[in-house]
Amino acid sequence: MAHAAPAGGFARTPDVFSPKVHLAARYGIPVVLGLVYGYWAAANRRDGGPITGWNLLFGFVTALAFIVLCLAVATFAPLLKRELHSGVKSGFAGAAVGFLYSQTGVSVLRSTALGLAVAAGIFLVFFYRYYTHEDGEGNRIR
Asked: Cα 55 to chain center, whole Å?
């Protein structure tokens, strides 16, 4: 039988993208997300006022920080156990949302509460996904 299913009973779908496409997506997606995030943070901070040099600098520094942290999370989080893997990714997402919300001028407590709520929701989703798709050692089962 040429195309037998693996021992677990689930056949893997074929990878339709080349290694070049995967490499471009690995670095391209965080860069695009970072630029959008930096623009959004700068727009929140200026609150409809004029675009200044300091506002542009803030946007680019925020974008650079987001890109570096996103690449670090994408590189190192999969090396952790599923609980920590979920925690690192959800912590990054919660901090990112909380920071964006804080740039609107609301109180620190409101932005912290929103960041924690987002992090908790994302943690539940990621933990469920990793718990149902990995064994105890972190090996994919599907």
From this structure: 24
Strand, helix or coil for residue 75:
helix
> Count of alpha carbons within 13 Å of 16, Cβ hemisphere only?
1
In contact, 90 and 126? CB cutoff 8 Å: yes
Question: Hey, what amino acid is at 6?
Answer: P
Instruction: Tell me the two tokens of residue 128.
Output: 């469920």
pTM, two decimals, is 0.81
Dihedrals φ, ψ of 75, to 5°? -85, -45
Residue-wise over 6-21: b if at least 16 C-beta within 10 A, else e?
eeeeeeeeeeeeeeee
CA dist., res. 29 & res. 21, Å (int): 11
First-to-final CA distance of the chain: 21
| pLDDT tens readout for residues 91-135 | 999 999 999 999 999 999 999 999 999 999 999 999 898 888 766
